[in-house]
Design brief:
elongated, 75% helix, 147 residues
């Protein structure tokens, strides 16, 4: 016999809630990633000149590509919040986020290696994208077992 009482889900036959599916650290990480992405998106849409100046780069002649990228980063932030709220229903959003972070990190590192971006960009990339990859992978594997 289990040391834990059966969850209300098991008793009623209802679909699992986020509390039943995600460990607390997983829900926290997804929420953190969501809000971080929303803040990064705001910076990319409104304060891109400051970001370019901080990196020592010449500002873009056309702001639209940077701002559109900011919109996409913000949408991923909303996606991570949706996964935190309803993980099984929104797991595909986490798949998209994982692959987006992995592929964009590879391209960004290639640009750093080629000298198109300063080495100062690497810590930003590590904190904003690369650091999430192992945790997103663990959460995806966890959700696969529960889905």
């Amino acid at each position: 016999m289990s040391a834990h009482p059966p969850s209300s889900v098991a008793r009623r036959g209802a679909s699992p809630t986020p509390a039943d599916v995600l460990h607390p650290w997983m829900r926290f990480l997804l929420r953190f990633a969501g809000f971080f992405n929303l803040l990064a998106a705001l910076c990319m849409m409104c304060f891109y000149h400051e970001g370019y100046r901080w990196l020592g780069l010449k500002g873009p002649e056309l702001a639209l590509p940077v701002q559109v990228m900011g919109v996409l980063v913000g949408l991923f932030g909303v996606g991570y919040l949706l996964v935190a709220a309803r993980p099984l229903e929104n797991v595909n959003l986490l798949h998209l986020g994982f692959w987006s972070k992995a592929i964009s990190s590879a391209f960004a590192l290639a640009h750093v290696a080629a000298g198109n971006l300063p080495w100062l960009f690497v810590p930003i990339l590590l904190f904003a994208d690369v650091a999430y990859l192992p945790f997103f992978w663990i959460i995806l594997r966890h959700l696969k077992r529960h889905g």
